[in-house]
Amino acid sequence: MDLFFREEGSSGKEIVIIHGLYGSSDNWFSIGKKLGANFHVFLIDQRNHGRSGNTDIHTYDSMEKDLFDFFEKRQIQKAVVIGHSMGGKVAMLFAANHPEKIEKLIIVDIAPVNYLKSPEKGQYNQHLKILQSLIEFQEKSQSFKNRTEIAGFLQGKLGNETLVQFLLKSTYRDKKTRLFRCRINTQIIKQSLDEIIGGVNEETMLPLSPVSGYPVLFIKGDLSEYITNKYIPLIQKIYPEYIIKTITGAGHWLHAEQPNLFIKIVKEFIG
Predict the structure, then answer these.
(1) Model-level pTM greater than 0.85?
(2) Which domains does the chain have, with CATH numbers?
(3) Out of 58, 69, 171, 177, which could bridge 192 as a Cys pair, Cβ 3.0 to 4.6 Å?
């Protein structure tokens, strides 16, 4: 898959940023622009997201292969890889398979865990609710005159303004039909949700551990349930020399909620 990407900066260490579920390079544009003042930054759109192509296959193996192909096509020899959520799991798998490509690894608010087995079942149900809301939005696209109306519809379904503003980044008006569309391949994502939530877990990563050869930083939001204390022993077993930083007052989309602090932590880790 030939991934769409944005590029910021042209000198310094190369950074590749991989967005999470429902995201795109758009969601990381301001972060990428600020990092681009000191580094050469690539922001990719993963398959079935943003401006990259749609496909019936949405697995971590396929996304990891997409990332490897991106490195090859752009002739990136070694980079700092930043992955958020689903993108963090792609980054972990890619780094484990291709350690020679990794300068440093930054994992944002995700752990190498099968969240289908997690007691926080609300996460899975929340994802189903988000996807169903986006599917309904597309089915009723002729009803919306502007993004304000779309926001009102999603707010009524999801009741989370931060989440709604995040999802709106993936909506656009089709130039031919003048109807609003969604850049997320919602039907395929829904079909692949078990893989997205459960994949790249203990069974995947423990046989590859202990991971060494590149520094690893985990950044978590203290209001998020994706990296809790019960997952720390597993992270430590896989990444014995890991570092973890917590952003206070932030949830799962911490880079959007606390961008300045997020950038400060990233810059300090990269050096």
Answers:
(1) yes
(2) 5-118+199-270 (3.40.50.1820), 122-193 (no CATH)
(3) 58
